Every structure is written in C-alpha cells, then in structure tokens.
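How a chain folds remains the central question behind the approach discussed here. This step matters because it turns folding into a mapping between discrete strings. The sequence in question and its structure tokens are set out directly beneath this paragraph.
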Amino acid sequence: MKICFLGCGNIAQAIIDGLLKNGISSSDIACIERNEQRVESLRAQNLKIIKLEDLALIDLDLIVLAVKPKDALSAEKSISKMAPKVAILSVVAGIEIEKYSQPHCIIRAMPNTACAFCKGVTALYAEDHNSTAFNNANKLFTRVGHVLVLQSEEEMHRFTSIIGSGQAFLFQVLNIYLQELEKIASSNHVAAKSMFQDFISSLGDSFSQDQNFESLISKIKSPGGTTQAGLESLEKNNLDMILQAAFKAAEDRSIEISNEK
C-alpha cells in the first residue's frame, strides 16, 4: 500500500511511526510538509518529501489529509485537482464529509497518538463501507491498533472526545500523580520516573487479568482505610462529573468546528 501524508503534525507522525514499526517500508510513504523542522525529522526516517504538484506523478492508494481544520477544505480541493482518482483519508477533527467538494472520495478517521506504539484506537467512517479505499483505510489502521467502524458519522464527535482527546485528560491526571511522587523522591527524579513508568504499566497488567474495575478497586481498599478515605473524597468532589464535563466540552467543540465551515 502506497500512502501520502499531507500535513505531518503529531497525529500523522504517530501513524507514520506505527506503520514503520509494523513493517511498512519507508519507500511506500510520501510526505507533504512545509515545516522545515518536521521535514528534517521525516527525512531522518528515510521518508520521501514531495510537493503538492507531485501527487499527479506518483501511484498512490490513499492520501492522508492531516492539516488543521481551517485548512482542510482548501487542501482537499487541491488534492482533488492534482490526484482526482485517489481516495482521501481525512484525520481532521470536526469536518464532516459533506463539507468537502468530493464527499464520495472521503473516508473519515479519528485515530489517537497511541498509533505510534501500534496500540491506537481509530474510528472509521465513509459513505461506502464496501469500497476498496475503505478496506485499505481499515487495513492501514489495523496495522497500528484497533479499528471501530462507525455506522453514523454523528458518532465521530463523541468518539473524538473520549478516545481522541481522552488520552490528554488521563495524561493530565497522571501528571499530578508523577508530581506527587517526585515530591517524595525529590533527590532522584530519574528513579521516580522509572518507578512511575512501571506503576502505569502495572495498571494495564491488572486490567488484562481482571476487567472489572469494582473488583480491582476492592483488591486495594479496605473498610475504614486510607484508600477508602481517598475514594470518598473523589466521590464527594464529583470526579465522574468533572470527567464527563471534559468529554462533553470536547464533543461540543468538535460539533462547533463542523459548523464553522
């Protein structure tokens, strides 16, 4: 499969990293990027750097549109002009398929940055789920993690908030954990980060053994103990409502973006 990325910011780079880890040849990936610093990084991965007008000269299976939302529609028109027969895989948040000039050529995807470690979760939607291009997009993201095919494009807003933005919310919480640990291990922050890495890894290991959170919590807390006191504080301060509000804010912003164009 031959792919070209138009825009190589964080999410595009995560997908590229995952594809390279999974055995995709760097010769099968082309990139269109204006930022010189990113260009140097891409070249260091032996990726081909091309210009927009070069799209008409190379054979491609998919063009990944990974620009900022404000630039997405004009970029899609340029792609359609240069390579009208190539399907466009858009990872742009908030821009619905019908807003593009060639909706039938658009596949929407919402991946997260865990794609870099081949542990991504990607929502996928298109008007035609049976097309060759859609199957290619599905195969591409299966190489870098899990794929959830959506039956309605409207579901993309909610998915964006939970999986796309949700990672950052968890990182924000985990950063507080790390800061507290570093206060205790103030003389050795390197050791603290190593401990913290194992701490995070152990959470995944625990979930792989027991996928019931109530059960996992019960193995840690004891009646009247320290964990019970902390959990009661979290409940009193409405932790669940705080996170749900963050999901709702991200979802609302996704909807706003779709209405801005």
About this structure: The longest helix spans residues 239-260. The chain has a mean pLDDT of 94. The chain has two domains: 3-154, 166-257.
